[in-house]
Amino acid sequence: MPKYSVIIPVYNRPQEIDELLKSLTLVNYSNFEVIVIEDGSNLSSEDICDEYKGQLNLQYHYQDNTGPGLARNKGAEYAQGEYFLFFDSDCLIPSEYFNHVDASLDDIDCFGGPDMAHETFNTIQKAISYSMTSALTTGGIRGGKKKLDKFYPRSFNMGIKKDVYQKLNGFAKLRFGEDLDFSMRILESGFTTKLILEAGVFHKRRNNFRSFFKQVYNSGIARINLNYRHPGSLKLIHAIPTVFTLGYILNLILGIAFPILFILAFIPLFIFLIDASLSTKSIKVGFVASLAAFVQIFGYGLGFFSALIKRKLFKKQEFSAYEKNFYN
Question: Domain residues for 215?
Answer without folding.
Answer: 210-313
